[in-house]
Design brief:
Number of helices: 7
Largest sheet: none
Number of strands: 0
Order of helices and strands: HHHHHHH
Structural class: mainly alpha
Strand content: under 5%
Mean pLDDT: 80
Shape: globular
Helix content: 55-70%
Low-confidence stretches: none
Oligomer: single chain
Length: 134
């Protein structure tokens, strides 16, 4: 697959807009940073993590979905956030928290930026799927 100069014009346009303060890069939500800090501490307890994660219902639902997937199927499906944390493990919870936060940051208003993001997202998910399979 051959790329041309025009393929990269959208990237140049986005960078130019950022440099001219026409666009702004989003920052991670404070709750995400709190959860990631807690996960990095070796002495963190399950109830502390459950308390933090339960403050974001969308994240809780996403973690429940991952823990209930066919890939991680257990004899008894997880019913509480504590069960979910046990099934997924702290490292996987950290990854899902970051994924959820980064994805939620990119609510794009420009159709060009949305197309650029979706194209990059599809490439990255394909690469991650292939790596996971291998």
């Amino acid at each position: 697959m051959e790329t041309t100069q025009s393929d990269y014009s959208i990237y140049r346009q986005v960078v130019t807009q950022l440099m001219n303060d026409q666009e702004q890069l989003p920052s991670l939500p404070m709750l995400t940073l709190e959860i990631r800090r807690a996960l990095a501490r070796p002495e963190v307890s399950m109830p502390q993590l459950v308390g933090l994660i339960s403050r974001d219902p969308a994240l809780s639902a996403l973690l429940m979905k991952y823990a209930s997937s066919a890939l991680l199927r257990t004899r008894v499906a997880p019913k509480t956030l504590q069960d979910v944390l046990r099934v997924l493990g702290l490292q996987q919870v950290d990854r899902v928290v970051m994924l959820h936060s980064v994805k939620s940051l990119f609510v794009l208003h420009s159709p060009g930026h949305k197309l650029l993001f979706m194209d990059a997202w599809q490439r990255l998910t394909l690469k991650a799927s292939i790596c996971g399979f291998l």
